[in-house]
Amino acid sequence: MPILSRRFRLAWRVALAILVPLAGVSSPSTAAAQTASQTAAPATAAPSSAVPDAPRPPAQPSFASEQTAIEHVTFAESVRRALARNPTARQAVDEVNRFHALMEQVRAASLPTLNGIGTYTRLDHDRVQSGIVIQNAGELNLNVTLNAPLISPKTWVMWGQASDQVDVARANQADVRRMVAVSTARSYLAIVTQRRLLDTAKTARENAKGHYEFTHAQRVGGVGNRLDEVRAAQEYTTEEVNLQNQATALLRAREALGVFIAADLAVDAADEDTPTQMPSINEALNEAEKVRADVRAREQAEKAADRTVHDAWADYVPYLNLIAFPFYENPPTATLPRTGWQAELVLTVPIYDGGLRYGLEHERKALADEAQLNAEATLRQARSDVRVAFEEMQRADVALDQANQSAAFAKRGLELANIAYRAGATTNLEVIDAERAALDAENAAAIAEDSARQARLDLLAASGRFP
Questions:
Q1: φ and ψ of 151, to 5 deg
Q2: d(CA 349, CA 5)
Q3: Is the Cβ–Cβ distance between 125 and 119 less than 8 Å?
Q4: Number of other residues whose CB lies within 10 A of the CB of residue 356
């Protein structure tokens, strides 16, 4: 077969040598190129003079990323730093502190208050009545006022409800930490995958470059043609474009991880040591109900809302306050001694407030119903997440195995296509197709590997085991 193939190509060249002068074309390679151009290109295509003779080497500017340092962190370290330094996680801590401050404000209504007051009064002269000074020209009055709620059910239950909101804020903080940790882990895994894609692009570029150099050497040696060389050059430059795009994507992934862990520079993955110990589906479902942060947060919110409904009785009961104040009067008068004290008990009975208490009670019931629905929906979603993540992991493992096989077959196909082309048994179209198939298969394998890692992360997050 190779002998027949060589004879066929020799006969083809002889035929072109006879026909080319009649068509006014200077060489067989030029005729083939023009024929292909007339067949494939539209009438408005750029003239052949605009096509470079050979691929220009890519420009090598001084990239900004090459001038700055890159920090390398492990998977566990990236998650730890994100939880400690990420602004969203820190804002969740501040939110807990804010609710604690609100609780302190509400608590103040249940505790005694003590205020000191000093007054100095100056008149033009003493006020005298029947020879008795009833008000001196200069008077100093000092007193301390104590207001102590003795029986105050309404403020007591408000204090307890405010404490519940602090617990809700803490539960929400745990949920925020979970989301920050998962987002950071995804960013870390994206770097691992992007590096694989970049390596694949480099390999594809080197394969295309080697194929172009071979076709160029063949044409220069008189056994190749311009069409094969142009096709190989086009594939070479296309792979160079893909390489630059993958490098940019890797830079974006590194910068994204740096933002998540609050670093002022790009951060790279130092290893691929991601969690591998996976729970069974029953373990994951049980843990999702008991330890998953968002489920716990919604349950805590439901409990707090139920308490406001149960505490509605406090709006209808009386409350009792003690008001006492000792005083100092200088100079004393006929009506006020120099020192003394006064105290009173104030009982307040709420009778009618225009329907305010009923409106508040109805609002609390509605909020409690909403909180219950949110808790049920979150738990239902958590169970669904576990089931999906578990099957996703299983199917991702199957897909990864098949993708790796596909990549191995595509690589072998490229090797065979190159051998066949160099032996003259096929055209470079088969080589180019094999190169593209090999690149697609390698990319598919990298994506399948990333899907398997992401599925494990999803299962851990869905079960509440991560972070």
A1: -130, 110
A2: 110
A3: no
A4: 11
Q: Which helix (H) or strand (E) holds 269?
A: strand 267-269
pTM: 0.80
Instruction: Tell me which DSSP letter residue 46 carries.
Output: P
Distance, in Å, from the CA atom of 147 to the CA atom of 320, rounded to the nearest integer, reads: 11
In order of start, what are the domains of the chain with their CATH numbers? 84-463 (1.20.1600.10)
Q: What pLDDT band is residue 37 in, cutting at 50, 70 and 90? A: very low
Interatomic CA distance for residues 292 and 378, integer angstroms: 10
**What are the start-end ranges of the E strands in 67-198?**
71-73, 113-122, 127-129, 132-135, 138-151
- Taking only the tens place, the pLDDT of each residue in 399-448 is 999 999 999 999 999 999 999 999 988 888 999 999 999 999 999 999 99
* CA 189 to chain CA centroid, nearest Å: 12
CB atoms within 10 A of CB 58: 12
Residues, the chain, total? 467
Pairing of β 319-330 and β 339-348? antiparallel
Q: What is the pLDDT of residues 254-279, one digit of tens each?
A: 999 999 999 999 999 998 877 878 99
Distances 6 to 31, 232, 417, 420, 421 between C-alpha atoms, Å: 20, 21, 18, 13, 12
| Half-sphere exposure (Cβ direction) of 213: Cα atoms closer than 13 Å | 7
